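Dear colleague,

Following up on yesterday's call, I've attached the two folding results inline so they're easy to grep. Please treat them as preliminary; we haven't cross-checked anything against experimental data yet. The first protein's sequence and C-alpha cells come first.
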Amino acid sequence: MPFPVLRTDFRTCRPPGATYAQAGAAGLEVAIPCTAAPNDGTQSSKVCVHLADVTGSALGQSGKAVQLSGVAGGRLSLTGTKEIDIPAMWPANCPFRIPADTSKPAVAIGFLDEQITTDSQGQPLRDKNGSPSYHPSATSGFTNAVRPVVFGDETTEVTIGHAAVIRAQ
C-alpha cells in the first residue's frame, strides 16, 4: 500500500505533521533456535525464516487513521524442509502454523503482515475476545512483516520488519 507523498524537485516529502516509520532488509535468514554447526559445518535449526525484500511501514497523520503495511517474500522451514511459501503480498494478520498438519503438534505459530492498532500509549486495542486487533479508525499502531513464535524448552518470539507510530488522540 503506497503512502501519500508530495513530489517536489525529485525529492520525496511526507505530508506536514505526519509521523512515519519504516523497517526493512534486502534479505535475511532467521534461525530459531540458532544452533552451533556440528563438525561437518551444517547448521541445524528447528524453524528457519528465509525472507527477501522485507518492509514494514507505518504512517500517522493528524485526524486520519493510521496506515500500516508489512511485505516480504520467502519461506518458512522446519528442520530444513520448506513448510510455508510466503508470497510478496498477503492479507493483513494472516496466521500460520508449522507444521500446517493439525494432527501433529505445533512447533511454531505466527502472523504474516501483522497489523495491530494501539491507543495513544502504545497499548494494543482489543477485539471482543480480548485479542489484539485492527481498528480502522485508530490513529496509532504497529506492523510486523512476519512474527513467528517458536515453541520448545523456552518459547521464542521474533518480530521481523517492525514499524510503529504513536499519536496523541
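Below is the second protein, in the same order (sequence, then structure):
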Amino acid sequence: MNTKDNLDEKKLTVDTENNEMHPEPDVQKQESVVDTPHAEQVQDAVEPANTDEAPLEDQQEEKIDYHLDDADSDESEETDSDEDEADEESGADDTPAPLFTIEEIVQKLRALLEEERPQRKEIDEYKNQFYRSLRNEIEGQKQSFLSAGGEEIDFVASEPPLFTEGKELLQKIREKRAAILAMEEAEKEKNVARKLAIIEQIKLLTQNQGQEDFNKVYQEFKSLQQEWNEIRLIPQARVNELWKSYQHYVEIFYDLVRINNEFREYDFKKNLELKTELCEAAERLNEEPDVVSAFHQLQNLHQEWREIGPVSRKDREEIWNRFKEASTSINKKYQAHFEALRSKEDENLELKTALCEKLEAIDYSQIKTIRDWNNKVKEVLEIQSQWRQIGYVPRKWNTKIYKRYRAACDFFFRSKNEFYKSLRNEMEENLRKKTALCERAEALKDSQDWKKTTQEMIEIQKEWKSIGIVPHKYVDTIWKRFITACDYFFEQKKIHTSSQYEEESRNLEAKKKIV
C-alpha cells in the first residue's frame, strides 16, 4: 500500500476511502486559487477526487518550451539582458545558486546531457548562469576594446569556443527532453488501454461470484489492484474518468463478494493503521517552517492515502476528518504565503512602472553637450541598477513591463550613440578646418611684411578660436603645429622691431650731438 510521489503540484485532492463497501460522507469541495507566477492551485482536502495517476509534475513540464537559442546574447552595452528577465520567471525559490565559471557551466551542461532525464530546474539554473557569463564576456571584450582606444560604435563581440559549445549543449538538452516527453506521451496512451483492461477484469470478477474458489478470486482482485497502482503516467484529461470507473467496480466487488469477516476485518485494521500514520505525518508537517516544502510533502501523503484501501464504517469519518483537518491547516498557510508574494509583486510592479516613467520623461532637447550626456548616462545606469534589485512582478505584467523598460533604455542609448556619432563627424570637420589654418599660418610665418602679416595672423587666431573641438587623439598635435607657426612669426617680428628701435635710438643721439 506504499506509493510514490505523483500528485499534481497545482491541485490538491484527496479521494474517497478506496475499495469501501459503502460510500464516504459527502464533503463539499472548497477551492481557492492564488494567481501569482509561482503559486499553485490550493484546494482543501476533499474526498472524492483524482486517481493515483502519473506525476502531474511531469505532465506540466510538457508545456514548457526551452527556447534556449532565443536568449538575448547581443544586448546593448548598458541595458539589462533578456537573461535577467528570464530569471524573474524562474520560480518562487529565492535561494541564490552558486556562481560557476564558464568552464564549470559547460561541464555541468555536458553532465546534464548524459543524464537519463535532465531536470528542468537544473537546466534553468545553468542556462541562466551560462547567459550571464556570456553577457559578462561580451562586456569584458567591450571594455578591453575601449581601453585600447577603440570607439564604442565600432565594437563587435566575438564568441569564444566554450560559449559556442554551451549553446549547442543547451539545444541538445532541449531536444533530448522533447524526445523523452514524446515517449512519455505515447506511454500514457498505452497505460489508458491497460487501465481500461483492468477495469473490465474487475467488472468480470463482480459478475462471476460463487462460481469458483473465493480465495482465488480475491487474490486475483488484489493482483489487479496492485497492477493498477503500478501504472503511473496517463493523460490528465482521463484521470477522473478512469478513477471513477475503477472505483465504481471496486466498490461493487466489495459489496457483492462473499468475503469472510476475518479477511475483511484484517484489511480494515491494517488500513486504519496506515491512515493513522498518514494523519500523524500530516500533523507534523504543520510544524514545518517552510510552507512550500510542507505543501509538496502533503501531496505525497495524499497520494498514499488514495492508494490505501478502506477502513471500517465506524472509523471512516473520524480518520478522514483528522486527515482533512491537518491538510486544511497546511493549505491555508500555503495560500497565505503566496498571497503575501502576490502583494509584494504588486508593489514591485509599481516600482518598476515608476522607473519606466522616469526613463520616458527624459527631455532629450536639454542634453546638448558631452557633460550633459555623461550626467544623464549616470542617472540611467542608476535606474537600471534599481531595476535589477526589484523582485518579481505578477506574471501577466512580466513581459509587458519589461518590454516597456527595455524600449525606454534602448531609445536612450540609441540617442546617445547618435549624438556621439554626430559629434565625431563634427570633430573631423573641425580637424580639417584647423589643419587648413595651420597651413595658412605656416605659409605666413616667414613673411617680413610685418603689418599686413600681423593682421592676417590675428584673423587666423580668431578663426581658430571659433572652431570647436577636434578628436581627442589630435588635440595636442594640431595645437602644437598651430602655435609653433604663430610663435615663430611673432618672435621674428619682435626681433625685427627691437633692432629697428635700437637703430632709431642711435640716430636720435647723433642728431642731438649735431644740434
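For the second protein, one point worth flagging: Strands lie at 31-32, 42-43.

Best wishes,
A.L.
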